[in-house]
Amino acid sequence: MTAKLDPFAAAPSLMKNWMSTSIAVASSLEPSLIELVKIRASQINACANCINMHTVEARAKGETEQRIYLLSAWREAPCYTDRERAALGWTEALTRLSEGHTHEGVHQDLNAHFTEEEQVKLTLMINVINGWNRLAVGFGLWVDPAAAAAAAKAVA
Length: 156
Hints:
Layout: H1 7-10, H2 12-26, H3 31-44, H4 48-60, H5 65-69, H6 82-95, H7 104-113, H8 116-139, H9 145-155
């Protein structure tokens, strides 16, 4: 894939702020949950860059191969907690907004497993990863996970 545009070069100040916001939001809930959300939204959005990056990050944070491989079939796989299932359902509902606003049942599960503050944090994370997916897919980005980690450290 050839990048169409480098957003970091085109708008460095805004991208630095976006990266800082992304890091802050990603550190607001447990790392394993955050990585599952990032991977699942990226699968839905067909963002190869983000799937690659976040599966590498998930493994580095201790996520198992089984849970990564089964993520696209999380409803049928017994290896996810009820809290993770609530987060994945919310992720799918918000990532697929254009398919209709039928997420009341999903919201009930969210209420059962997340405080109001955690719901906001999770929703922000879903927004952040969907934003990164759109940047990566839209501009044809492919970032090596090690390079992304170094960039994140530089911003922090």
